[in-house]
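Z., the sequence and structure:
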Amino acid sequence: MKPEDIIIAPIITEKSNDGLNEGKYTFEVNPKATKIDIKNAVEKLFEVKVLNVNTINVRGKEKRMGRYVGKTPDWKKAIVTIDTNPEQKTYLGKGGKTTKISKKYKDSIEDFMGA
C-alpha cells in the first residue's frame, strides 16, 4: 500500500488536541494497515521520526432512521507519538573515530490542524 492509502484523515477532537503537546497525533487509518505500515507512512508523508504507534479498532454504532436500523462502518484509529526533540546520533566508526549522524527531522506536524 502507498502511504497516501494508509493515512485516511486526521482526527481532531478535544482529547487528540491535548496530546499534541506531548507529540501524539491521532489519525484514521486503513483497517488493513499494520503498525509498521502506519509508522513508515507517517515518516514518509510528514518527515518526522516516529517513536511509537498505538492502534484501536473502533466498532461502528447502531443508528436508527425511523423504524429502520442500520450500522455505521467499523474503522481503525492510530495514535502516533513522534520525536519532539530530534538530536544528533553519535557512534564509533573505523579507526575509533566518532561519527555524527544528523537527520533532518521535523519536531511537529504542521499540516495536522490545517495550518
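The domain at 3-103 is CATH 3.30.70.330 (Alpha-Beta Plaits). Residues 35-46 form the longest helix (12 residues).

Let me know what you think.
H.
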